UniProtKB/TrEMBL annotation:
The gene is tadA. The active site is at 62 (proton donor). It comes from Evansella vedderi. InterPro entries: APOBEC/CMP_deaminase_Zn-bd, CMP_dCMP_dom, Cytidine_deaminase-like, MafB19-deam, tRNA_aden_deaminase. This is tRNA-specific adenosine deaminase. Binds 1 zinc ion per subunit.
Amino acid sequence: MTIKTERIKEDEKYMQEALFEAEKAGIIGEIPIGAVIVKDGEIIARGHNLREREQLSTAHAELLAIQDACKEVGSWRLEDCTLYVTLEPCPMCAGAIVQSRLKRVVYGARDPKAGCSGTLMNLLDEPRFNHQVPATSGILEEESAILLKDFFKQLRKRKKEQKK
């Protein structure tokens, strides 16, 4: 097996864990986005969206996972960690990723409305910042996108039924 093939398999393994987190969010009525942070081959933090439950605009999966990872390693610097997230990070999360000095980001689906890791812009690779974070996109993209599409389809259906 080549190094590239091994990396893809590893990325898919951890992205599957991020998808489990996303499913947890969907079950409780949150937009199904999940994240995990990996250090030295182990998941050290997990997060899924909790904006509705917490009524907190910053309760994104990535930010919750970053907070837990910082506590776990005892530092705000996550230099040896990789973040796996099911949806491309928004501007707020991309900023937190850069600020926390993550080594790498891997995401599933692109976000055409708020994606700041390559779609609308790439804050992770902004040369004017003192730290850049390489990103890999499209890992389990279809699975990530289907979770989101199904969630919003059901949400629209419920809202339509409530209007009757």
